Structure prediction request, 383 residues.
Amino acid sequence: MLSKKFSKGGRGTVCSSAAETVSEHKSSKIQNLRVLFVLIVLSILFFTSCTNFKTQSQFDKNLQELPTLTPYRIADKWGFCDRNKKMIIQPVYDDARPFSDGLAAVELNDKWGYIDTKANMVIKPVYDAGCNMVGLFSDGLAAVELNGKWGFIDDKGKMVIQPIYSDPCNIVGPFIDGLARVALNGKWGFIDDKGKMVIQPAYDFVDSFSEGLAVIIFNGPGFKIHCGFIDKEGNMVIQPIYDGANPFSEDLAAVKVKGKYGFIDKIGNVIIQPVYDFAYSFSEGLAAVKINGELTGKCGFIDKKGNMVISAVYDDARPFSEGLALVAVSGFYGKHGFIDKKGNMVIPALYNWAYDFSEGLARVELNGKWGYIDKNGTQYWED
Prediction:
């Protein structure tokens, strides 16, 4: 009986021990799974927090790039706000531009003047805005239009260079490295900051100097143009043998040869073969190019070896500025947004038109009205 009890009890003890062992194993396994789950969750939270930290860091960095005061539109009037969108200068102006060299261009009653950061009208609003273009201060001078002619004022409002230059909306100036492009009697040349004509107006058009050279254009028969490059002494450094050209940037210039664009260096050597239907200048290591037709083709971005690093999927594109490039979708006159150097659309294509970023701000047009956005996509206006 004892044996049976023992046997029974023994079997019961063995079964019980096995069951407890299995139970403990299951419990241990569950515990391990719980620990693993907690670790996974913590890992996700950690990496998410890191990502958020990076995103927040970039967000804050973008804010720090903003000027102290930003043009801000309320309905149809403009003022200036700080980085927290608190109004510092009340919205009493018909239009406004960002501060440059401590002054901002503002419009009152169809005339433009300049205010300081305390809203003092330092330069009275007596100037026009040809093609809605207003001169910003550069090298201490700003181009202004008066009665259809352009001249240059200093930051006190003194007319340093008299308004004698005509301009069919190509806009004279600005001063770059001591020289500004001007048009006189239908021809273009360059003046210094004293108003002296240092490169005679002998060209049908010129672009501003960039990296020591300037694009010059001669008009040929049948609307054909001939583009070359001059130095600051007016010497023809690269002969006008191209059908189109953009300024030098990062030691390369886009030029048009037999209907296609490629890139040359500063002595005229072909660095990237002319295989593109259009091309902009290099900026931040990349250049916007168009393939499959100048009007109907698509734009992407190449590096200096000619590799397409951002796919040609955009209807239009502009050079990178401050890490972002303006692109158009839904047609050339469609919607505009901004991409980063990986091709990510970081600011959605919402805008009917836009300009490049400068000092953390881009001027954009939406629903027939203009305003400014920062690199976070924050809109500085209220309708």
